[in-house]
From TrEMBL:
PROSITE patterns documented for this protein: C_TYPE_LECTIN_1, C_TYPE_LECTIN_2
Swiss-Prot/TrEMBL keywords: Disulfide bond, Lectin, Membrane, Transmembrane, Transmembrane helix
Keyword Nucleus: no
Name of this protein: C-type lectin superfamily 17 member A
Gene Ontology molecular-function annotations: carbohydrate binding
Domain C-type lectin: 111-225
Record flagged with keyword Glycoprotein: no
Entries under SUPFAM superfamilies matching the protein: C-type lectin-like
Source taxonomy: Eukaryota, Metazoa, Spiralia, Lophotrochozoa, Mollusca
Region (Disordered): 74-93
Length: 228
């Protein structure tokens, strides 16, 4: 009980005293250093806020830029499809008419579909067959130039109908079985890396739009061709 009373009696004094002391210390410190401490703390707070705001702005800007880019690409793809269709139907009377979504150009007797989905090489081949064609072969420079040009404007990797499955190093077009007459390999390709690359795709990396051999189980977009 006495201890308790002592506590009651002394605590307020101590409290006041300690407050007082604390005040004194504070006052002394601020006499010593009128701005430095507060300024330093504020500076740190401001810096932290600036960093947070900057990171938020950069992140948002990146998101917006990405969205805008993919919108632009979609628009470009649509415009190209539309203009190619118009070219086919309006100006090139000697050319073939292609179904919606399929494109061609002057001098070619085929229509081509650039897929928006991705499949392995066999899956792509069977999808093209279901559509009435096959994975594209490339038999002339005219056809090669047209496909190079189309691939360059699209940001995808496309399977084409070339393979050396079962005849390592001897590439042919499937399903015709015809050997390659024109080629467009990337430098150093085909290299059959890992002894496991038998199917040919259009590699869009660095705008090279060249061919590469790859594992037939890889998943890419694909170009179907219907000869008319
Ligand atoms: C490669 O050839 C084998 C044997 O004929 C066949 O089973 C396989 O499906 C072929 N793969 C491709 C991607 O054509």
């Amino acid at each position: 009980m006495k201890m308790y009373e002592d506590l009651i009696r002394t605590t307020p004094d101590e409290h006041i005293y300690s407050d007082h002391t604390y005040d004194n210390v504070d006052v002394r410190n601020s006499f010593k250093n009128p701005f430095k401490r507060k300024t330093k703390r504020r500076l740190i707070v401001v810096l932290v806020v600036i960093v947070i705001v900057a990171v938020t702005i950069i992140f948002t800007a990146l998101l917006l830029a990405k969205e805008k880019l993919s919108n632009t690409l979609e628009t470009t793809d649509n415009q190209q499809t539309t203009s190619s269709n118009r070219k086919t139907t309006d100006t090139d009377t000697s050319n073939v008419n292609c179904a919606t979504g399929w494109i061609t150009t002057f001098g070619l007797r085929s229509c081509y579909l650039f897929s928006n989905d991705n499949k392995d090489w066999i899956g792509a081949q069977s999808r093209c067959r279901k559509l009435g064609g096959s994975l594209t072969d490339i038999e002339t420079n005219n056809e090669l130039n047209f496909l190079n040009h189309e691939v360059r404007s699209r940001f995808r990797v496309y399977w084409i109908g070339g393979t050396d499955n079962g005849t390592e190093g001897k590439f042919r077009w499937e399903p015709s079985g015809q050997p390659f007459t024109v080629t467009n390999w990337s430098p150093g390709e085909p290299n059959n890396a890992g002894n496991n690359e038998d199917c040919v795709y259009y590699n869009r990396q660095n705008g090279r739009n060249k061919w590469n051999d790859d594992n037939c189980n890889s998943i890419f977009s694909y170009i179907c061709e219907i000869k008319v």
